[in-house]
């Protein structure tokens, strides 16, 4: 882990600010923040809930792109997930890899938790949440589409993981 001049670890946000400056950007990246969040308390016990899985990792064949090349919400079958994912997203390739799908799409772990009684069931599909720098696109297009798909799958709750 990178350390500052005092020998303390540099946090993710500070490291990202430095990275953008090194790339020549004039202003720091602005993280999304919201005064109100659209989350609700689960209306049933987790052991009775149907869980949907959402990951930021996209499909290996880039089939989640629109005609202009922008990432779109994409869904795949939990029963037959792809083995690898796209590598065009920004992630620390020195600290991690995508060889273990369970680190960013924990289908097997979720199945074990269902078998152990922590979760009720899994939805039949998992979903890809695009990683875009557009807060507007995320809020107005991607998040509502993810919610629509989760509701279509009968999800009571969602587990979000990132690549």
Q: What's the arrangement of strands in the largest beta sheet?
A: 2-3-1-4
Which geometry do the CA atoms define?
A: globular
Helix content: 10-25%
Quaternary structure: single chain
Distance between the termini: 18 Å
Following the backbone from N to C, one meets helices and strands in this order, namely HEEHEHE
Main β sheet profile: 4 strands, mixed
Mean pLDDT score: 84
Radius of gyration: 18 Å
Strand percent estimate = 5-15%
H/I helix tally: 3
**Parts with pLDDT < 50 across at least 5 consecutive residues:** none
Number of strands: 4
Describe the protein in words.
The chain is built from 3 helices and 4 strands. With 163 residues, it is of the alpha/beta class. The chain has 2 domains: 1-31, no CATH class; 34-161, no CATH class. It has a 4-stranded mixed beta sheet with strand order 2-3-1-4, sandwiched between helices.
Could you outline the blueprint of secondary structure elements for this entry?
Layout lengths: L11 H11 L27 E6 L18 E4 L29 H9 L5 E8 L6 H18 L4 E5 L2
Summary, kept brief:
With 163 residues, the chain is of the alpha/beta class. It contains three helices and four strands.
Give me some keywords for this one.
163 residues; alpha/beta; 2 domains; four-stranded mixed beta sheet
């Amino acid at each position: 882990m990178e350390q500052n001049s005092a020998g303390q670890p540099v946090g993710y946000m500070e490291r990202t600010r430095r990275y953008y400056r090194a790339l020549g950007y004039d202003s720091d990246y602005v993280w999304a923040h919201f005064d109100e969040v659209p989350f609700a308390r689960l209306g049933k016990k987790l052991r009775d809930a149907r869980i949907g899985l959402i990951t930021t990792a996209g499909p290996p064949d880039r089939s989640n792109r629109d005609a202009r090349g922008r990432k779109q919400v994409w869904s795949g079958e939990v029963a037959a997930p792809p083995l690898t994912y796209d590598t065009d997203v920004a992630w620390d390739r020195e600290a991690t890899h995508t060889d273990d799908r369970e680190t960013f799409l924990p289908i097997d772990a979720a199945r074990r938790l269902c078998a152990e009684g922590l979760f009720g069931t899994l939805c039949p599909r998992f979903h890809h949440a695009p990683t875009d720098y557009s807060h507007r696109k995320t809020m107005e297009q991607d998040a509502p589409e993810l919610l629509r798909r989760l509701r279509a799958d009968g999800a009571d709750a969602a587990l979000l993981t990132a690549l």
